[in-house]
Amino acid sequence: MFRRLLLNSTTAALFALTPLTVNAQDTPSQGGDIVVTYKDDITTLDPAIGYDWVNWSMIKSLFSRLVDYEPGTANIVPSLAESFEVAPDGLTYTFKLRKGVKFSNGRDVVASDVKYSLERAVNPKTQGPGAGFFGAIAGFDEMTAGTADTMSGIETPDDGTVIFHLTRPDATFLHVLAINFASVVPKEAVEAANGDFGKHPVGSGTFILKDWTIGQKLVFDKNPDYYVKDIPHIDKVTVEVGQEPLVALLRLQKGEVDIAGDGIPPAKFLEIKNSPEGADMIVDGEQLHTGYITLNTKVKPFDDVKVRQAINMAVNKERIVRILNGRATPANQPLPPLMPGYDKDYKGYPFDVEKAKALLTEAGYPDGFETVLFSTNTDPQPRIAQAIQQDLAAIGVKAEVRALAQGNVIAAGGTEGEAPMIWSGGMAWIADFPDPSNFYGPILGCAGAVQGGWNWSWYCNEALDKRAIAADAMSDPAQTAERQAVWGKIFTDIMDDAPWVPVINERRVVAKSLRMGGPDNIYIDPTRVINYDAIYVKQ
């Protein structure tokens, strides 16, 4: 029944994204060390806190979860759990743990570790952005309100069994258990780290963090005790940080770098693509992505819907597509076109400078206003932010561009009242799993409008939250089409309030060295970005 549910719901839509087959000649080789580069340092490797597209892949490989995905796909498979059962009413999930799995500190993983880890992710004291994912588990409301220290809906009758009791059916629950926030950690290691577990992670995943020189590099070694034979294929991954994308690309061409994590700068894309080795160096594919501008509804004048609607009409999205050398299409709603629930008939806000000016006048700002637009400082994001700045100037809005390291932008967005506007390019939003709910809860729902959260518009519409919960309770496969339509209407109704300017749906482009092996879909993995467990070095 579970398999049928997946194939009849959102997962089936993702098959169009990337090829899912591996050719016989691509049998993975074992061994080898690789070098990956990024401009920005890694902010944290704590699975309850880390939530950007760079650390997401690393956290995935450091830790294990009850379930995971087949590499390069959105097909859920058992992981720490060797089996699981779902009750007919969809309210009880029972998992049997795999025996003999060990944390990198040598201790066996047991059921109480699963309970502790999920409760830690939900606990407000953790200040993690993923608590809302677990809202269907009994006891969630009490824990988030601070009236309980544990969740009554997670039972561990013995070391090998975990039982979840839900207060409502949740069509996404197995996907939730596969995301990083559900990663299993040992309580003693968290406590020993004294608030710095993100720099001293202990997990049961495919790799172990061996060294972290802040501002320079991270070194991950293969976990020799990982419970799946010959996984991962690579012996060591060195992540070098502080590398400008252009420099990293030149080093890759010289054979000094294996994966340029920040991709190919737009100015070099056509040159690399048309080079003799371009076809073997570039991985270019669709992804479930929307790049957007957040408009902070708790900061004046963005508390006025007319101002937010005016900003939506002021941005020339076609120009931004040109900056990216055509590697994107203009967006008009939060959902990307390949996501189930996307409304093909919805037109969104037109690019209309005069109408935008008129709306500002109606809102009491005939001469515009001054504000701040945050952006990351990795090319081409500052150039896109400057293009947006010019568009806003045309309607009288003087926006100071504040280009910072990614971690600083994320921190500003997650601090109430700090960031009036954020251009999300280079950070968000790539789907954690292929379901429309993932474009709501963490980034537009009330649960994400918290300290450390990713709802940077601080938008909270309680009526829409109730509709979202009702949509996710439609877990019967026969309701799939109805559920997708409900979600689609939620997102177009959000656009009436205009907490975002949806700008682009961007393709994922990765540059890899000629010695790297494996199918393209593990370099643009729909649930991991780069799947370090599956890539390998050709022998």
Task: Give me a quick take on this structure.
The chain is an alpha+beta fold. The chain is built from 17 helices and 21 strands.
Count of β-strands: 21
What portion of the residues fall into strands of 2 or more residues? 15-25%
Q: Distance between termini?
A: 42 Å
Q: Major sheet: size, sense and barrel closure?
A: 7 strands, mixed
What is the 3D shape?
A: globular
Strand order of the largest sheet: 8-9-10-1-11-19-12
Unreliable stretches (pLDDT < 50, length at least 5) are 1-25
DSSP summary: helix tally: 17
- Give Rg in angstroms: 23 Å
Arithmetic mean of pLDDT: 93
Helix content estimate: 25-40%
State the secondary-structure class: alpha+beta
Structure, explained:
This protein is an alpha+beta fold and 539 residues long. It has helices spanning 2-7, 10-14, 53-62, 111-122, 140-144, 173-176, 187-192, 245-253, 266-273, 278-281, 305-314, 317-323, 353-362, 381-393, 406-413, 462-472, 480-497, and strands at residues 33-38, 67-69, 76-78, 81-86, 92-97, 154-158, 161-165, 207-213, 217-222, 236-241, 259-260, 282-285, 291-295, 328-330, 370-376, 398-404, 421-423, 500-506, 508-512, 516-517, 536-537. A seven-stranded mixed beta sheet has the order 8-9-10-1-11-19-12. A six-stranded mixed beta sheet has the order 14-18-13-17-15-16. Helix 16 (462-472) packs antiparallel against helix 17 (480-497). The longest helix is centred in the C-terminal third of the chain and has 18 residues, at 480-497.
